[in-house]
Amino acid sequence: MSTLATSGTPHPLPRLHDPNLLIFIRHGQTDWNAEGRMQGQRDIPLNAVGVGQATDNGKRLGSYLQQHDIDPGDLDFVSSPLVRTRRTMELLRGAIGLPAEDYRLEGELREITFGSWEGFTLEEIADEEQDLILQRRANKWAFVPPGGESYEMLAERIGSWLKTVQRPSVVVSHGGVFRVLRGLLEGLDRYAVPKLAVPQDKVFVWGNGAFKFI
Quick one: which H or E segment has residue 22? Predict the structure, then answer.
């Protein structure tokens, strides 16, 4: 676990790369999202709300591309390999009139893993794992759940992927992935990164050195 203090002097993440255009979409809602269960790398499908969110995000994306005269054929469509992200990608591509399955998978875009905590809510594990819950609360950036990853570890994985992005891209991935991606692109304080909001009904567009939500 990191020995850096969690308060006082900020500890910004390094700004590794500045893509010309990177569009990020979080997968739609699953039942585990709705129940507050730690999902991680478990393959949980979209629920009906999530299907609607993915379709609506496709419409938002289509409108944005049309307004900015961007040809979808010039974009690299990339998804995490988990079923909820693949389904989201296929729904949004269908909503903008593209062949649903014409995109590529990138294993590095998998969600942060919570190890043996996956499938549980924090409330369900609080009694048996109280000390670990307190450690997580004190330093969520560096905390490693049993058999899982920390945000610090996830940032290494996503940072390695980010440096390979050379084309304007549409990425469908996960909440934890977006948090560290935004932190790396904007050079945010690492201890603020795990607290960033990642709505499932928004499209996040990176350009000119900042994100905007549509």
Answer: strand 22-26
